[in-house]
Amino acid sequence: MGRLDMLLIWLPQPAGFKLMALFSTLDAGIQEVLAAWKARWDLERVHRLLKQNLGLSKCLSRSYATQLKHADLAIEALHLIRQQKQLHPDLSWRTAQHNAAKTLKSQLLTVLPALSA
Predict the structure, then answer these.
(1) How many whole angstroms from its chain centre is CA 76?
(2) Could you tell me which InterPro entries the record lists for this protein (predicted)?
(3) What is the pLDDT of residue 95?
(4) How would you label 33-66 residue by residue, b for 16+ Cβ within 10 Å and e otherwise?
(5) Residues 59/66, Cβ–Cβ less than 8 Å
(6) How far is CA 112 from the centre of its chain?
(7) Which residues contact 27 (CB under 8 A, 6 or more apart)?
(8) How confident is the model at residue 41 (pLDDT cuts 50, 70, 90)?
(9) Alpha carbon distance, N-terminus to C-terminus of the chain
(10) Phi, psi (5° rounding) for residue 28?
């Protein structure tokens, strides 16, 4: 398997500290391992957001192309919701979702007929 390094990190929490153990097979220094871990963790958080709030896990297709398009649409939905939250910071997540859906529906109803003409 090769070399396996373990890095122990104490993370500050509201009520003290939390011990985390990071394992790595990378041939890199501590800073590089931490940067890779942080990038991976950010990706995990986005993936969880897409699965839990935007229906990424609800795609029942087995076709790679369809799954890829479903993921594209989920990411586009996230982008539209974030735009709504930037325009109106006081909106709840659910209201921002609703507003983004109405905006997209309106765009689709006005753009598609123009394209078919």
Answers:
(1) 11
(2) RNaseH-like_sf (IPR012337)
(3) 93
(4) beeebeeeeeeeeeeeebeeebebeebeeeeeee
(5) yes
(6) 29
(7) 3
(8) confident
(9) 62
(10) -145, 170
57 Cβ contact partners less than 8 Å away, ≥ 6 residues apart = 51
Tokens matching residue 57:
């896990």
3-class secondary structure, 2: coil
Q: 22 with 37: CB under 8 angstroms?
A: yes
Helix (H) or strand (E) holding 13: strand 5-13
Q: What is the pLDDT of residue 96?
A: 92
Return contacts of 99-102, CB within 8 angstroms, 24+ apart.
none
In this model, does residue 87 exceed pLDDT 90? yes
SS3 50: helix
Q: Which amino acid is it at 7?
A: L
pTM here is: 0.57
Q: Do residues 83 and 100 make contact, with C-beta atoms less than 8 angstroms apart?
A: yes
Q: Read off the tokens for 98.
A: 């609703």
Contact assessment for residue 79 and residue 100, using Cβ atoms and an 8 Å cutoff: no
Give the position of tokens 């991976």.
Answer: 40
What radius of gyration, in Å, describes the C-alpha atoms of the chain? Answer: 21
